[in-house]
Design brief:
With 207 residues, the chain is α/β, with parallel strands linked by helices. It has a 5-stranded parallel beta sheet, sandwiched between helices. α10 links the parallel β4 and β5.
Length: 207
């Protein structure tokens, strides 16, 4: 898999950062007093999650929309806490691995994320006592809400390939969602799914 690889693009949540998206869905359902179907329908009506992930609406607009769905008043802080509930820890072993890999490959981060999550995981890393910032661990960091594009659309992969001057045939993309790998392959990238059986620590165990 790593033969002829010179560059590696990592997804963030579920690959480097431990993540539990169900925690956020459960917290939002409790706040909004709705079930999973109603939450999905409400959010899908105007594509608010994707718009927020692509930086097309602000955090204030996102929070106000969630407030508009509630049967009673809920504060911006309650929504922020529920939204960030999915973000878990950043394993120190991942930090150490990424520092080693950066010395051997061109390494990058490409994440579907948003303003509230970015602020939260930056603070969480500091709270964990991690001395390195995200930007210390990679040559370049790309977030969907800065690029105004998101995975799995091929355009986001073509954008990062162009910006970094990458050769897709020699670039490996790792993600925990198969649909994102499909988009990456359309852009010519080599791909690897990350799951419980295949972690980055296992893939790069000899690095």
């Amino acid at each position: 898999m790593l033969e002829n690889i010179t560059s590696i693009i990592f997804d963030f949540g579920g690959v480097i950062l431990n993540l539990n998206e169900q925690r956020t869905y459960s917290a939002l359902m409790q706040l909004l007093q709705c079930n999973a179907h109603d939450l999905s329908r409400s959010v899908a009506q105007n594509n608010v999650f994707r718009n927020y992930e692509c930086g097309l609406i602000s955090s204030d607009e996102f929070v106000a929309y969630i407030q508009s769905l509630a049967p009673h008043y809920i504060s911006a802080q309650q929504i922020t806490d529920a939204w960030n509930a999915m973000l878990l820890d950043f394993p120190p072993a991942h930090v150490e691995l990424l520092l080693r890999l950066k010395m051997q490959y061109r390494t990058f981060l490409l994440s579907n994320t948003n303003d509230l999550h970015e602020k939260a995981f930056v603070q969480n890393m500091k709270n964990q006592g991690i001395k390195h910032s995200i930007h210390d661990l990679f040559e370049t960091v790309w977030y969907s809400h800065h690029l105004h594009l998101n995975k799995p659309h091929v355009e986001i992969f073509e954008t990062v390939i162009a910006q970094a001057g990458l050769n897709p045939e020699h670039t490996l993309f790792l993600d925990d969602k198969e649909e994102n790998l499909v988009g990456a392959r359309k852009a010519g990238l080599r791909t690897q799914l990350i799951d419980k059986e295949t972690s980055i620590l296992k893939i790069f165990k000899n690095h």
